[in-house]
Amino acid sequence: MDEKLLAAELRQSAPVLGIDCGGSSTRLAVVVEGRVVGRERAGPFNALLQSGAASELAAIIGRHEVVAAGIGLPGVRTAAAACQLSEGLSAAAGLPVTVHSDAAVAHLGAFAGGSGVVVVSGTGSVALGIDDDGREAWAGGHGFLLGDEGGAYWIGREAVRRALRAVDGGEPANALATLLEGAAGCELEALVAAVHRVPEDRSLLAQLAPAIAESGLPEAIEILQAAGRALGELADTVLGRLGPLRVCGIGGVFASADIRAVFSSGREVVDPCFEPEVGAAMVALGARAPVA
């Protein structure tokens, strides 16, 4: 994707920074003259769950010699919240900073400003669609307590639940439990205790998703297929409101072939034009993004 040039009107010579914040990690891209010239990774950020995120983001921006920054941030769902964060970060960073939701910058990057439905599934999940007339429709994105079906946290939680049911049924050495203990680096009881001790730390369960996806265990495949169906339902909810559109899946969860197969069934699924962090850089360059 690095060799693709942005649209001519976005090929500004001065460097800008795009930041895609996630529940597990944050990705950064520096764009100059329509090309990505640098990439970095940082820790997780979430506007709903994390205090002090603004000062940390301002510090990250300050480490780069850029003239503007765009940020996609989970938990931002209203124009008022986006505006407030933009103003605060601009003041703190000393340069123009534009904040939108993570789904908004993912959509902008995935379709290079065009129409389509993006389903973002990293730690959590959300879908955003924009049709040719500019109409928007959202689905999901309600957080790990009330939604985020098909995301990495959901996958890890479902696997632990299955393993616990097997243990309760008298199968202490079941393969799924063994897999999860290896991925977590502790016994199942200790993992359960840690989740309850720090419930807002979604990484405790989300970090299990890659091992689940790679295991090939029948129980794991069932969970992955259920995740694919849940993510497909998010897309279908948006398609039902906007009509036929291209669909793009973005996020680490889509690395699973089992999830991609179910998600792609019966839908016009396409590859993204650019990554979300490049979409965030496009915002910094003045591209129009969805409301939040």
Explain how this protein is built.
Helices cover 42% and strands 18% of the residues. The chain is an alpha/beta fold and 292 residues long. It has 2 domains: 1-112 and 273-292, ATPase, nucleotide binding domain (Nucleotidyltransferase, domain 5, 2-Layer Sandwich), CATH 3.30.420.40; 113-271, 2-Layer Sandwich (Nucleotidyltransferase, domain 5), CATH 3.30.420.40. Strand 1 (16-20) and strand 2 (26-32) form a beta hairpin. Helix 4 (152-168) crosses helix 5 (175-184), helix 4 crosses helix 9 and helix 9 (218-242) runs parallel beside helix 10 (257-264). The model has no long low-confidence stretch (mean pLDDT 87).
Summarize the structure.
This protein has helices spanning 53-62, 79-93, 102-110, 152-168, 175-184, 188-197, 203-206, 209-215, 218-242, 257-264, 276-284; strands at 16-20, 26-32, 35-42, 68-73, 97-101, 116-121, 125-130, 136-140, 247-250. The protein is built from 11 helices and 9 strands.
